[in-house]
Specification:
Layout lengths: L16 E2 L3 H4 L2 H12 L4 E4 L17 E2 L2 E4 L5 H19 L8 E2 L2 E2 L2 H10 L3 H7 L2 H7 L9 H20 L25 E3 L6 E3 L18 H8 L9 E2 L4 E2 H16 L8 H13 L6 E9 H4 L16 H4 L30 E5 L4 E5 L6 E9 L2 E5 L5 H11 L1 H6 L13 H6 L5 E5 L4 E4 L5 E5 L3 E8 L4 H15 L7 H10 L6 H27 L4 E4 L22 E5 L2 E6 L15 E5 L6 H26 L7 E2 H13 L6 H25 L16 E2 H12 L3 E2 L3 H22 L6 H13 L2 E2 L2 H23 L6 H12 L5 H29 L6 H11 L7 H24 L7 H11 L7 H24 L8 H5 L22 H8 L4 H4 L2 H32 L17 E2 L6 E2 L6 H8 L19 H11 L7 H24 L2 H24 L26 H9 L5 H17 L18 H14 L13 H14 L5 H14 L6 H5 L71 H9 L27 H6 L22 E3 L6 E3 L19 H4 L12 H13 L10
Parallel strand pairs: 1-2, 20-23, 24-26, 25-27
Antiparallel strand pairs: 2-17, 3-10, 4-9, 4-11, 5-6, 7-8, 11-12, 12-19, 13-18, 14-17, 14-19, 15-16, 15-18, 21-22, 21-23, 28-29, 30-31
Length: 1511
C-alpha cells in the first residue's frame, strides 16, 4: 500500500439512522413515509431492523456464477480522467510527430503536465508568463515548494513538450495547395531536399527547420504533418465505460480473491482494517494519477437469472419459519408491488426497478455518482459481508450538485453531456462540499437497509467482500416528481424506462383498486397531464394538423413509440407524417418531424379529449370519497338526543373506512373510539341484565368486585352521554329501578327479630341476581346465616343418628362465626354440652378398642350399653358394638365346635383364628386355638420332613395315600395346586370319594383299604407286564426315557422295569449303595424317605395331643396299621420251618465266609484299608436265624470280634465315601465294575467254604410265591421294615449262587443295624436350636441327614433282625423269647450298652474321599459338617475324632471339648458342658413298655387308646 502523508480526506456528516420498533416495522411504506420529512433532507438514510428480523439467505450458493466488471480506480475520478485524457492527446501528438512522450520527473515525482498547462493558460499563456516572470508562481500553484527555484526548469519542460502542442492548436488552419510536388508548405521553397520531410499520411512536404518547433534530424519511423496531426487529435474521445472481466466466478472463488486482495493491500487481516483507513485510502487512490489499482465488481446481477437473496413464495425448500420473510413488506421482491406503491401498476417486470438487482463487492469496488431512474426511491439491503460506505446528496440539491460536477470537470461533460447518467464518474466529496453541495455519509453493515429518496444523487464503495440487493419503489408522493423527471429526460434527450402517462392512465382506469392516497396523488397528476394534452392538441390543430387516428400505444414496443427528437415514450398522442410512417414525435416537438406540409401530418391519439374527463372524474370521486365520509362522521358524532345514530350505524361508517382504505386520521380514530366505547357499554349492560360475567371480574360477595349503586348511576349517565344509542341502555334503566325496590324490601325484613329463612333467602337471592354492591345485602346475608344455623341445629338434634362429633363441632364453629344473638348463644351452650359428652364416651370406646390386652366381652357390652344413652352417633362406640357382636358370635361358634362329637378340622380352626384375630377384644379361646393350630402345623412340618424327600413334588397326603397311578405312562398323577385345595379335598380326590364321605373317619379308613387292594393288584399287573415285555417284545421301551434296552441296566426290585444308569437320579443310586443288599427302587416306586416304623409311632404319639382333625393324620394311621399288619404277616411267614432253615443256613454260611476272610489276614484287601483304624460297634446276629445258630454266634463272639469289626469298618467306609457299587439288576453288573482280581478272590473264598455250586438255599414251590407276593406288598409300603430286607435276602440266596452274593452275605450279621436310618453318617450342618416349648420330642437337631433324627420313643419293639438292644429303647417282653431272657441275665438284669443313632457315638474318622463324583457330593446332605461347640477350632486332616452328646445329641470335635483319643469309650454316656448344667428331667413323650404295647395294639386294631393322658 502506497500512502501519501499530505493527502487529506474530511469525512462528510453522518446520514440519519432510524431504528423502528417491531410494530412500526410491520408497515414498510408507512414507516418510510413517516420518516420521509426528516430523511429526504439528507437524500439517504439508514434503517436498522428490529433484532428479531433476520431473513434467511436464499441464494443457491453452489450454482451462483457471475462475471464481474473491471474497475480501474484512477479512471473513475473526474479530475483524474481529465488528466489522463490530456496526456493521451499530448502522447498522440508526439507519436504522430515521430517521437515518444516521456514525462519528466521533478523533485522525485512525475511532472503533472495537465496542471502545468492549465495554470500557464490561466496566467495568460506561455509568452505572458515568460514576460511577467511568473514561472515560480506556477511552480507554487502546482504544488512545488517556493524556496526552490524551479521556475526555469518548468519553463524548459513546458517549451519542449507543451508549447509545440499550443502552437499546433493555434495553427490548425491548412495552408493553400502549392503546385510544386516537393515544396515546403511552410516556406514555399523546394530547396534543401535532403532536409525535406514527407508526411506518411498525406505526402505533404516540409523542411525540418520550417517546422514548429524545428526538428534537428529526420525522425525515424512514421511522421505526420501538422494537418494530419490536427485531424487525428481533433477526433472525439470515446465514451468511458467499464469492461467485463474474462473470468467467471462463484461466490466462494470471488470471496477468496477479494479477501486476498484486501489482505495483501493493507498487509493485515481483512477484519482488522478500520473503515476510516479504507475510506481515506480509497479517495487517495482515485485522486492519484500514478496509482494503478484495478478491482472487480459483480454489479447489476439480475435476480431473475440468479435468484433473490430473500426467500419468495416460489422458493424451493421453503421452511415454515421462512414464510413470514417471504411475504414481508421489507422483502425487496415485494416492496415495489405493495399496495400504495405506484410501480405495482406497471404490467411488465422492469429489471432493476420492479425486479431487484444483486451486487457482489470487494474492497474499493465502486458505484459512481448517480440518481435513480425516473427519480424514484431505491432501497438497498446488505445480506452479509463487510460494510458498504455511502455518500448522498439531498434531492432538492440535485441541480447544485450537477453544476458543481460540470464546473469541476467541464471537459468531460462537453464530450458526454449525460455523463452523470452513465454511472462511471466519481468525484471526491470534499471537492463538492467546497462548492457548497451538502453531502452526508454512512456505513451500511450486514442486515441494514439504505433508502435513497427521489432525485438524490448517491455514490459509494465497498469496504470488502459483501453481497447486497437493491430495487426501486415509488409511493404515491413520487408521482409529481416523476412527471418532472420525464420533462427533464426530454430536455436531455434521454430514453425513459416506462411511459409515465401510460402508468397514470392505467391507474385511473381502476380507481377503486387504488389506495386513497395514491388515488388523490394520481388525480392531481392526471389533472396536469390532461391540461397539458389539451394545450398541445389545440396548438397542433392551429398548426393545421387535422388528420387523426386512434392508436393503442400500449401495444407497441417502446422503441417504436419514442419521440424521434426528445426520445420520450409517447402514450396519449404523437404525430406522424406520410413521408415516413415509422417516424413519430411528441406533440411538443411536432415541428421537428419533417418539412412536409401539415396536411401530410396525422395525430395519433390513445384517448379523445372527451374520454379523459370521465377517467378524471372517477379518480376524483375516489379521492374525494374520504371528504364525503368525513362529513357524515362529523354529523353523527355531533348529534344530540333523539338525533343520535345507533351504534350499528357508526360501525358501518368504520367498516366503510376500512373497505375504502381511507388513511388513518384523527377523525377515524375518534369514530373508532366512540364505537368501541359504545360496544363496551353495551357489553357491560348486557351482562348486568343477564347476570353474566362483566367486563371486570366475576361478581362475588366482595363489594370491590361489584358495581356499587353509585357506579350504576354513573354508568347510566355514561350510556346517556354516548355519541350513539345502544339497545342495552333500557336494561340498565330497568336494573336501576329493581335496585330501588330491593332496598325498600330489605329495610322492612331487617327490622324483624328473626324472620323466616325462606323470605330472607329469596330476598338475598334477588339481591345477588342484581349483581350490584348493595349495603343492605351483607346485613341480609348475616341475618340469613343466623336463621339457617338455628334451623340446622334444631333439625340435627331431632335425628340422633345424624349427630356426629364432626357435625356438632361444625355447628359450633359455624355458630362462633355468626353475629351475636341471644338465641344463638343458647343453642351454642346446648351444643357444647352435647359435644363434651360425645367426646368422653367416644374416647372411652376408642380406648377399649385399642387396649392391650383387649377388654373382655362382658366389659365391652357394659360400656356399649352406657354409651348408648348419648343421643348421638359415635364411631368408636359403633365400632365397639360391632366388635362385641362379632366376638359373641365367634365365641358361640368356638363353643359349638368344642362341644361337637368329633374334633374339628384344621382348616375350620384356622378359619376361626383368622376371624378372631381382627376382633379388638380379649377372646379367651383365641390363644388356645392359636396354640392348637401352631402345634398342628408343627406336626405337619415334622411329618413332612420325615416322609418327603428333598425338593419332592408330592404333597404329604399324596405320599401317604396308596398309589392310584401305577402303570400310568405319564408317570405322574394329575395334581392341582396346593393352594387351590385343602388337605381334606386332596384326600377325597386321592381316595376317589366325596367331601361329605371324607368327613367321616370310618369312610376314610374303608376307602383307604380299597385303595390298598387296588394298588397291590395294579403293581402285580405292572410287574407281569414289565417282565413279559423284557422277555418277548423286541420293540419294547424301558426306563424313564422310554428308549430301547441296553447292556448293564438297573432293575427296579418292585416294578421290575429296566432303567439306564444315566437316567436314574443320583439320589436313588446313592441310596441303593447304602442298603448293603443291592436293592434298587425306581423314582416312581420310591416316593418318600420311607422312615422306620418307630419314627412313625413317635409322630402318632405326638398326634394324640392335637385336638384337631388332620387328613394327613388319618392317612398316617392307615399307613401305620397297614405296615404293622404286613409286619405280622411277614413274621408269621419268617417263623415257618422253611424260612427258618433258610435263614439259619444263610447265617452259618455268612459266618464261615467271614471266618475265612479273617484267616486270610489280607491287610491290603480292596475292601479295607489297614491304615485307617476305625472303631465300629460289635455285630449282633438276628434272633430269627434260630437258637442253634445264635448260640454259636454268641460262643464265638470273642473269636470273631476282630472280623466283625473289620467288616463293620468296611461297611462304614462304604457308607461314608459312597464308592461301593452294588448289583442293581439280575445280571449282577455294577456301574463301576469290579476288577478281575477281586472276582477271583471272592470265588476262591466261596469255594473254600462251599463244595457244591448253585444257590445256597432252596425254596419250595409253595413258599416262593408267598415270599414274592409278600415282598411286593412290603415294597409298596412307605415304611422301612427289617422284614422286607429278610425276605429280599432269602429270595436273592435262593435265586443266585454265593459267588454272586458278596454284599448279601457280608451284610447278614449287620442288617439290623445298617439300615438306612441307622447307618453311620457324617455329622450334618449345624441346625438352629429350637425353643423348649417346641422340643416336645426332646430332639435338638443333630448334624445327621434325616430331619427327624431322634425321638425319645426310639424303637417301640425289637425287630427280628436286631441283635442288640438300643439305648433308650423300651423293649416289649415277647413270650418264648429265650434269647432275650438269656441276654438280659448275662448283663445282670441291665440293659445292654446303647448308642445314639445306631452308629458310633464316641468316635468318627472322617476320610477325604478322592473318588466322589460331583453329583454324589451335591446330593448327599451328610457332606456338610458342623461342630456344635461355640468356639470350633476347625481341625483338619484325614482322621478327625467326633463325639456325640447324649443330652442335646450334638456332635463335637474331640479337640473342641478338650478330649483326646481313648478318653471316652463306646458304651459310656457323654454329656456336653451345656447339658451337664441342666437338671435331669423326665420327658413327657417317653413311654413305659406297657404303654408302648398298648399303643401298638390300639393302632393295629383301630380301637381307641386307653391311656391318652400321658400323650
Amino acid at each position: 500500500m502506497v500512502t501519501q502523508q499530505e493527502f487529506q480526506f474530511i469525512p462528510p456528516p453522518e446520514a440519519p439512522v432510524f431504528k423502528p420498533t417491531w410494530e412500526e416495522f410491520q408497515d414498510a411504506l408507512g414507516y418510510i413515509n413517516k420518516i420521509r420529512p426528516i430523511a429526504e433532507q439528507s437524500g439517504i438514510c439508514k434503517i436498522i431492523p428490529p433484532p428479531d428480523w433476520q431473513p434467511p439467505y436464499a441464494v443457491d450458493v453452489d450454482n451462483f456464477k457471475f462475471t464481474p466488471r473491471i474497475q480501474r480506480l484512477n479512471e473513475l475520478e473526474a479530475h483524474t480522467r481529465i488528466k489522463l485524457n490530456f496526456l493521451d492527446q499530448i502522447a498522440k501528438f508526439w507519436e504522430l510527430q515521430g517521437s515518444s512522450l516521456k514525462i519528466p520527473v521533478v523533485e522525485r515525482k512525475a511532472l503533472d503536465l495537465y496542471s502545468l498547462h492549465k495554470h500557464v493558460q490561466l496566467e495568460g499563456g506561455h509568452e505572458h508568463v515568460t514576460k511577467e516572470r511568473r514561472w515560480n508562481r506556477i511552480a507554487n500553484k502546482i504544488g512545488f515548494p517556493s524556496n526552490k527555484n524551479l521556475g526555469a526548469l518548468l519553463k524548459s519542460h513546458y517549451e519542449r513538450i507543451l508549447h509545440p502542442y499550443d502552437i499546433f492548436q493555434r495553427e490548425k488552419s491548412i495552408p493553400p495547395e502549392v503546385l510544386a510536388k516537393y515544396i515546403c508548405l511552410n516556406c514555399g521553397r523546394g530547396d534543401a531536399e535532403d532536409q525535406m520531410l514527407l508526411c506518411d499520411g498525406c505526402d505533404d512536404s516540409y523542411h525540418i527547420f520550417c517546422l514548429v518547433p524545428p526538428l534537428m534530424d529526420i525522425p525515424k519511423g512514421d511522421w505526420r504533418c501538422p494537418k494530419c496531426v490536427a485531424v487525428e487529435v481533433s477526433k472525439p474521445v470515446e465514451a468511458f465505460g467499464f469492461e467485463q472481466a474474462q473470468k467467471e466466478y462463484t461466490l466462494q472463488s470471488f470471496g477468496e480473491m477479494a479477501d486476498k486482495f484486501k489482505q495483501d493491500y493493507f498487509n493485515m487481516p481483512v477484519h482488522l482494517v478500520p473503515t476510516e483507513m479504507a475510506e481515506r485510502e480509497f479517495w487517495r487512490i482515485v485522486s492519484s494519477i500514478d496509482e494503478d489499482v484495478t478491482v472487480e465488481y459483480g454489479a447489476d446481477l439480475h435476480t431473475m437469472d440468479h435468484g433473490s437473496g430473500f426467500p419468495t413464495k416460489n422458493s424451493r425448500n421453503l421452511l415454515p419459519a421462512d414464510q413470514e420473510y417471504a411475504v414481508s413488506g421489507w422483502n425487496l421482491n415485494n416492496l415495489p408491488v405493495l399496495e400504495g406503491s405506484v410501480l405495482g401498476h406497471i404490467n411488465c417486470d422492469i429489471s432493476g426497478m420492479k425486479v431487484p438487482w444483486m451486487y457482489v463487492g470487494m474492497c474499493f469496488s465502486t458505484f459512481c455518482w448517480h440518481n435513480e431512474d425516473h427519480w424514484s426511491y431505491s432501497i438497498n439491503y446488505l445480506h452479509w459481508g463487510e460494510p458498504k460506505t455511502w455518500y448522498g446528496v439531498p434531492g432538492g440539491k440535485a441541480e447544485q450538485f450537477e453544476t458543481a460536477m460540470i464546473g469541476a470537470a467541464p471537459e468531460l461533460f462537453e464530450a458526454q453531456p449525460d455523463l452523470l447518467h452513465q454511472l462511471v464518474t466519481i468525484m471526491n466529496p470534499n471537492i463538492l462540499m467546497k462548492s457548497g453541495v451538502p453531502i452526508v455519509r454512512t456505513d451500511q453493515h450486514a442486515g441494514e437497509f439504505i433508502i435513497t429518496f427521489p432525485r438524490s444523487y448517491h455514490a459509494g464503495f465497498n469496504q470488502g467482500y459483501n453481497f447486497a440487493e437493491a430495487v426501486n419503489f415509488a409511493p404515491s408522493d413520487w408521482l409529481a416528481i416523476g412527471r418532472e423527471c420525464v420533462i427533464h429526460y426530454s430536455n436531455l434527450k434521454r430514453y425513459c424506462v416506462f411511459s409515465h402517462d401510460e402508468l397514470v392512465c392505467k391507474m385511473a382506469s381502476t380507481p377503486d383498486e387504488l389506495d386513497l392516497t395514491v388515488a388523490a396523488a394520481t388525480y392531481q397528476d392526471m389533472l396536469k397531464m390532461v391540461d397539458l394534452e389539451k394545450k398541445l392538441r389545440k396548438n397542433l390543430l392551429h398548426a393545421g394538423v387535422t388528420n387523426a387516428e386512434r392508436e393503442a400505444f400500449e401495444l407497441l414496443p417502446d422503441d417504436e413509440r419514442q419521440c424521434d427528437f426528445c426520445k420520450t415514450t409517447c402514450f396519449l398522442s404523437a404525430v406522424t407524417c406520410s413521408c415516413n410512417l415509422e417516424k413519430l414525435v411528441c406533440l411538443r416537438h411536432y415541428k421537428q418531424l419533417c418539412s412536409c406540409p401539415s396536411e401530410n401530418h396525422t395525430l395519433r391519439y390513445r384517448y379523445t379529449l372527451d374520454e379523459l374527463p370521465p377517467l378524471l372524474h372517477r379518480l376524483k370521486v375516489r379521492a374525494e370519497s374520504f371528504d364525503h365520509w368525513a362529513v357524515k362522521v362529523k354529523e353523527a358524532l355531533e348529534a344530540e338526543g333523539d338525533e343520535k345514530l345507533d351504534v350499528s350505524d357508526l360501525r358501518e361508517l368504520v367498516e366503510e373506512a376500512e373497505a375504502q382504505r381511507f388513511p388513518d386520521s384523527e377523525l377515524l380514530q375518534t369514530l373508532v373510539q366512540a364505537v368501541t366505547e359504545a360496544e363496551k357499554c353495551a357489553t357491560v349492560a348486557a351482562h348486568l341484565a343477564t347476570k353474566k360475567v362483566r367486563t371486570r371480574t366475576r361478581g362475588s360477595a366482595e363489594a370491590k368486585s361489584r358495581l356499587t349503586l353509585e357506579e350504576l348511576q354513573l354508568f347510566h349517565e355514561q350510556i346517556e352521554s354516548l355519541a350513539c344509542t345502544i339497545r342495552e341502555g333500557d336494561a340498565v334503566r330497568e336494573l336501576l329501578s329493581r335496585v330501588t325496590a330491593f332496598q325498600e324490601e330489605a329495610i322492612q325484613l331487617l327490622s324483624q327479630e328473626m324472620p323466616e329463612s325462606e323470605a330472607v333467602s329469596k330476598l338475598v337471592e334477588s339481591g345477588c341476581s342484581l349483581d350490584i354492591d348493595l349495603p343492605e345485602l351483607p346485613k341480609l346475608k348475616h341475618k340469613l346465616q343466623q336463621v339457617e344455623w338455628l334451623e340446622e341445629v334444631e333439625d340435627t338434634l331431632d335425628d340422633s343418628n345424624s349427630v356426629t362429633v364432626e357435625c356438632v363441632r361444625r355447628l359450633r364453629d359455624n355458630g362462633n362465626l355468626l353475629p351475636p344473638h341471644p338465641k344463638i348463644e343458647k343453642a351454642m351452650a346446648q351444643l357444647q354440652e352435647l359435644l363434651n359428652s360425645m367426646e368422653m364416651w367416644d374416647e372411652k370406646a376408642s380406648q377399649a378398642l385399642n387396649a392391650k390386652p383387649g377388654k373382655s366381652l362382658v366389659e365391652a357390652e357394659e360400656l356399649v350399653k352406657e354409651a348408648g344413652e348419648v343421643p348421638a352417633h359415635l364411631p368408636s362406640v359403633v365400632s365397639l358394638r360391632e366388635a362385641v357382636k362379632k366376638g359373641r358370635e365367634w365365641t358361640n361358634r368356638v363353643n359349638n365346635l368344642q362341644n361337637g362329637e368329633t374334633p374339628p378340622l384344621l382348616e375350620t380352626v384356622e378359619n376361626l383364628v383368622s376371624r378372631g384375630r381382627p376382633i379388638p377384644l380379649h377372646l379367651e379361646e383365641l390363644s388356645t386355638l392359636e396354640e392348637n393350630v401352631s402345634a398342628a402345623h408343627s406336626w405337619l412340618e415334622k411329618t413332612a420332613r420325615t416322609f418327603l424327600k428333598k425338593n419332592s413334588h408330592l404333597t404329604l397326603i399324596e405320599v401317604l395315600v396308596p398309589r392310584m397311578d401305577i402303570g400310568v405312562v405319564s408317570g405322574k398323577r394329575k395334581r392341582v395346586k396346593r393352594e387351590e385345595m385343602s388337605a381334606q379335598q386332596q384326600q377325597a380326590q386321592l381316595l376317589d370319594m366325596s367331601i361329605e364321605d371324607a368327613a367321616n373317619p370310618a369312610n376314610v379308613v374303608k376307602a383307604f383299604k380299597d385303595c390298598e387292594e387296588r394298588e397291590v393288584r395294579a403293581m402285580r399287573s405292572l410287574r407281569a407286564h414289565n417282565w413279559n415285555k423284557r422277555e418277548g417284545d423286541s420293540h419294547a421301551t424301558f426306563c424313564l426315557c422310554h428308549k430301547a434296552a441296553q447292556p448293564n441296566m438297573i432293575t427296579c426290585s418292585l416294578c421290575l422295569d429296566l432303567f439306564h444308569t444315566g437316567c436314574v437320579p443320583s439320589s436313588h443310586r446313592n441310596k441303593s449303595k447304602l442298603t448293603n443288599d443291592g436293592r434298587f427302587l425306581c423314582p416312581s416306586c420310591e416316593r418318600s424317605r420311607r422312615p422306620r416304623l418307630e419314627t412313625i409311632l413317635s409322630l402318632l404319639v405326638a398326634l394324640q395331643k392335637l385336638p384337631v382333625r388332620l387328613p394327613e393324620a388319618e392317612a398316617l394311621q392307615c399307613v401305620t396299621e397297614r405296615a404293622m399288619s404286613w409286619q405280622d404277616r411277614a413274621r408269621q411267614l419268617l417263623e415257618t420251618e422253611d424260612l427258618k432253615k433258610a435263614l439259619g443256613k444263610l447265617s452259618v454260611f455268612s459266618q464261615k465266609i467271614m471266618d475265612a476272610q479273617a484267616k486270610q489276614q489280607h491287610p491290603s484287601s480292596p475292601r479295607m484299608n489297614g491304615s485307617q483304624d476305625m472303631e465300629v460297634e460289635d455285630a449282633v446276629n438276628d434272633n430269627s436265624f434260630g437258637g442253634e445258630d445264635i448260640e454259636k454266634e454268641k460262643d464265638g463272639s470273642e473269636t470273631k470280634n476282630g472280623t466283625e469289626k473289620d467288616k463293620e469298618m468296611d461297611e462304614s467306609k462304604k457308607g461314608e465315601d459312597g464308592s461301593w457299587e452294588h448289583a442293581y439288576s439280575s445280571n449282577k453288573n455294577n456301574d463301576k465294575k469290579k476288577t478281575e482280581a477281586e472276582k477271583a478272590r471272592w470265588s476262591r473264598l466261596v469255594a473254600s467254604v462251599m463244595d457244591v455250586e448253585g444257590p445256597l438255599i432252596n425254596l419250595s414251590s409253595c413258599v416262593r410265591p408267598q415270599v414274592q407276593d409278600l415282598l411286593v406288598e412290603g415294597e409298596l409300603l412307605e415304611v422301612s421294615l427289617d422284614e422286607t430286607t429278610h425276605l429280599w435276602r432269602v429270595l436273592q440266596a435262593a435265586d443266585h449262587p454265593p459267588a454272586m452274593l458278596e454284599e448279601t452275605l457280608l451284610s447278614l450279621n449287620s442288617f439290623g443295624n445298617q439300615s438306612e436310618d441307622n447307618k453311620p453318617r457324617k455329622p450334618g450342618p449345624k441346625k438352629r436350636k429350637v425353643t423348649l416349648e417346641n422340643q416336645e420330642e426332646g430332639n435338638t437337631k443333630s448334624p445327621t441327614k434325616s430331619p427327624l433324627k431322634k425321638t425319645k420313643l426310639n424303637k417301640i419293639m425289637a425287630t427280628p433282625g436286631e441283635g442288640k438292644i438300643q439305648k433308650g429303647v423300651v423293649k416289649k417282653k415277647i413270650p418264648g423269647s429265650k434269647l432275650l431272657e438269656k441276654k438280659k441275665k448275662e448283663v445282670g438284669g441291665k440293659e445292654m450298652p446303647r448308642r445314639k443313632k445306631e452308629m458310633p457315638r464316641m468316635k468318627r474318622k472322617r476320610q477325604e474321599s478322592s473318588n466322589l463324583s460331583k453329583s454324589d457330593e451335591d446330593d448327599d446332605e451328610d457332606e456338610d459338617e458342623a461342630c456344635a461347640a461355640k468356639r470350633c477350632r476347625h481341625p483338619v486332616g484325614q482322621n478327625v475324632d467326633w463325639v456325640q452328646c447324649d443330652g442335646c445329641e450334638g456332635w463335637f470335635h474331640y479337640v473342641c471339648v478338650g478330649l483326646s483319643h481313648g478318653d471316652v469309650s463306646e458304651d459310656e454316656e457323654y454329656m456336653c458342658s451345656a447339658c451337664s448344667a441342666k437338671p435331669q428331667q423326665n420327658k413327657a413323650d417317653e413311654l413305659t413298655e406297657e404303654e408302648s404295647v398298648d399303643l401298638l395294639l390300639s393302632l393295629a386294631t383301630g380301637l381307641p387308646k386307653e391311656n391318652t393322658s400321658t400323650v
